[in-house]
């Protein structure tokens, strides 16, 4: 296991690098939440086992090897917590403007990113599930009652710490935590391979005074292009792998709409965006401008834009207004403006003239209702990017 921290003022894991000059290739639009792939992205991972929020929150990750042969996997947690400017170890939410004094009256919440990577091996057709809070593998045990995680040859290689369940799958780097997870299929040398064997699902569980709410979504898979992989630590989405979607298509209720059911629940939604491109090897983050087109049931069109850097969890009505609920009724994502219950939004990262920068995005939408229940879905995708995205990995650490 390897944990890397950056100064949030200077750097982060999410340098949105892409479209490297001199790399050519035809991208295919096979980014999917249903097909096995070489790169599996879980856009949203939540943990809060301290009950600081009043709820107990944990995320269960499920990852399956669909192949008849064993596969090796490298995974990367991205912890997108903020920390107070006057207390570097005090966790805060950079998107929380309901409580502007979270860090005190003279301080502010600084966005930051922490990357933790780990590796393991799955046997033929093996599924695995674990809880993010403690890295505990679920369901599979040996005769002594100890969890079994595939063949585990990667767990104790140089750079990995501890033994099974203390080093193979690490716990969340801190709690509470919000962020994402990316898993990549690799060979015995821990370098990427052009095979598509991985499929994943995530379930976010919330417990409040004995009431349990669970919302699950399929991870987004990015397939490798057979014969195109350079087997190095630079993953080119659009040449070695299928390109990221050009548009994200989001079907949703407008915020504060009353659902036309017997419960008459009020619906609000959160959108979580993560970049296709990330630098897990000490590069600076770059913001991406996201353009939104919003259509109501009368096919009236509205538009807005907002910047995202590395990771963004945001209420729909906060995309075009001040963060917090004070002026939600003026948002183009709110029923008070649109006058219809539902609509469709398309979102895309605005391409720049910088040919070393990619702006592809992946997203998950969560809907929340008054009666303490929710659901989560990965968004639909349309088209492919004309500009490559890049994932940069730290140096591989193969066994002897």
Key features?
5-stranded antiparallel beta sheet; 1 helix; 400 residues; 42% strand; 6-stranded antiparallel beta sheet; mainly beta
Q: Can you summarize the main beta sheet? A: 6 strands, antiparallel
Lateral arrangement of strands in the main beta sheet:
1-8-4-10-2-13
Instruction: Please tally the β strands and state the result.
Output: 26
Overall morphology: globular
Low-confidence stretches: 5-12, 15-29, 150-167
Count of individual helical segments: 1
Q: State the domain count.
A: 1
The Cα radius of gyration reads: 21 Å
Structural class: mainly beta
Sequence of secondary-structure elements? EEEEEEEEEEEEEEEEEEEEEHEEEEE
Span from first to last CA? 17 Å
| Beta-strand fraction estimate | 35-45%
Return the average pLDDT rounded to an integer: 83
